[in-house]
Amino acid sequence: FTETAAKAFAGYEKIAQNPINFNNPYVFYYLARCYDVGLGTEADPKLAQDYYQKAQQKNPAPELTRKLKKRLNALASSHHQGNSNTHLNTQEAITDGTEHQHGVGTS
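Above: the chain's sequence. Below: its structure in token form.
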């Protein structure tokens, strides 16, 4: 992993552990994306799915709800088909376009 990716993942984990962020769906969404693509950590579809589901339970905005449904459907489909090639590419993961809008991962 690159040093930057590892730092991003560590930052998202730290943010997710802070009680002030427990109801922020974007925190769990970005952690899920890290596990989905292996950004700063090993790819883990099960953990990605768990974090996407946590984000979905936090009543996200409609745009994020659509993204969550898309990724959860892709992960569920791959599980049923035995296909592990459903991960987003890393560039797609880091150019999502919502990071800075919601202050996650920014100083």
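The chain has five helices and no strands.
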